Amino acid sequence: MQIISSLLNLQSQHLKADEQFAASILKESQNRVKSMAMIHENLYQSKDFTHIKFEDYIIRLVYELFYSYYGDADKIRLVVDVDDVNLNMETAVPCGLIVSELFTNSVKYAFPEDREGEIRVSLKQEPGTDDAREFILTVSDDGLGFPPDLDYRNTEPLGLELVNNLIRQIDGNISLDLTQGTKFTVKFKELMYKKRI
């Protein structure tokens, strides 16, 4: 996956100045590949090769995405609040991509013209659900707000379409709160691990 990410990076360097839209698409694809590669990297460092420590992964992912797109920590404050949980691959990969897409949307669109604000990423395990392993993931910002005329469940941009597909993949549901900026909440259960032969 690192090779794919590097190839996308090389391709984006050969685009001309007037091909910014194509460069943006390549960058987003590169970040999607990077988020999956980071999961595999964490998996190789784990003891049982089936679960990853999700707190470490999310912290690293969020900061790498932030500096990839924005980089000005004086203007935007990041808050990451993730329970100390291990997730299996079937759940970690789609969940990581969901975080990547929603967080990227906040970084790119919530704070135009050097506005200041905060982006928050949270993953909490529901109390008393050790067997079912139910989680609540939130990605929120206090920025400009999600366009009220845009249906996030049925939209053209690939990122939100991907988010909705991934949420279906983990049998979750998503809601949007626009009272203070943009807050996406995803509720899901850990998928059953399928033993590999």
Report on this structure:
By secondary structure, the chain is an alpha+beta fold. 44% of the residues lie in helices and 22% in strands. It is built from five helices and seven strands. The strands form two sheets. The protein has a five-stranded mixed sheet, covered by helices on one side. A two-stranded antiparallel sheet has the order 1-3. Helix 4 packs antiparallel against helix 5. Mean pLDDT is 78; it is low at 1-11.
* Sheet with most strands: 5 strands, mixed
Number of strands: 7
String of helices and strands: HHEHEEHEEHEE
Distance between the termini: 22 Å
**Low-confidence spans: pLDDT under 50, at least 5 residues?**
1-11
Shape: globular
Helix share bin: 40-55%
Q: What is the radius of gyration? A: 17 Å
**Number of helices, where a helix is a run of at least 4 consecutive DSSP H or I residues:** 5
Can I get a quick summary?
Helix content is 44%, strand content 22%.
What are the salient characteristics of this protein?
single chain, 197 residues, alpha+beta, 5-stranded mixed sheet, two-stranded antiparallel ribbon, 7 strands
Topology:
Blueprint: H1 2-13, H2 20-45, E1 51-53, H3 54-69, E2 76-82, E3 86-88, H4 89-109, E4 117-125, E5 134-141, H5 158-169, E6 173-177, E7 182-189
Parallel strand pairs: 2-4
Antiparallel strand pairs: 1-3, 4-5, 5-7, 6-7
